[in-house]
Write a structure and sequence with these properties.
Layout: H1 2-15, E1 21-24, E2 27-29, H2 31-36, E3 41-45, E4 49-51, H3 54-58, H4 66-74, H5 76-85, E5 89-90, H6 91-96, E6 102-104, H7 109-120, H8 127-140, H9 143-157, H10 161-171
Parallel strand pairs: 1-3, 2-4, 3-6
Antiparallel strand pairs: 4-5
Length: 181
């Protein structure tokens, strides 16, 4: 039952039409790691760390999407080594390796996360879903397939009012004012 709830939560968060900001203020271990990494922008407090004890301590594979996120964000070599060794990954190293967007001082975590969330509210309403889908497609497509995917999405999105507003804003040298969500 727990896996049904947490797995559904990961999928639901990835399906949200708005960007998801995650702020990690402690340990992201086990299944919590999958929840921590589901965000579109993930910040970690300097004192935070990431930990997959499954194989090294329990003899089982990680769950709740941890392997999916680790492999895509860290690469197979680092993800495999961290899983087999069961070593902790510091927030600073996680940022340097690309697991999270940034590592910030503990007292700046929430102010920074809220500032990023405010910036993201100015995006077009379809930005998060389109971006997630494009990168998910890229993970499984050949270069030629991804070029075709991008061209098709551009053909559809170029007819939307958000594109017209973006072009007008560029020509008028002002920030775009996309319609509210």
């Amino acid at each position: 039952a727990m896996h049904a709830v947490t797995n559904r939560m990961v999928l639901d968060l990835r399906a949200l039409p708005m960007p998801v900001v995650c702020a990690i203020n402690g340990v992201a271990a086990g299944g919590g790691l999958g929840l921590a990494l589901v965000g579109d922008v993930v910040l970690a407090a300097r004192s935070a760390y990431f930990y997959l004890p499954f194989m090294a301590k329990l003899g089982i594979v990680p769950d709740v999407g941890s392997t999916w996120f680790y492999q895509r964000l860290l690469g197979t070599g680092r993800a495999t080594a961290l899983t087999l060794l069961g070593d902790r990954l510091s927030a600073e190293k996680a940022a340097a390796w690309g697991l999270v967007w940034d590592c910030v001082d503990d007292e700046q975590l929430m102010p920074q996360a809220l500032a990023i969330a405010r910036r993201l509210t100015a995006l077009p309403a379809h930005a998060a879903l389109e971006t997630r889908r494009a990168y998910d497609a890229a993970a499984g497509n050949s270069l030629a397939e991804q070029l075709a995917y991008e061209a098709e999405r551009q053909r559809e999105l170029i007819d939307r009012p958000e594109f017209r507003e973006g072009v007008a804003a560029f020509l008028e040298k002002r920030p775009p004012a996309f319609p509210p969500r």
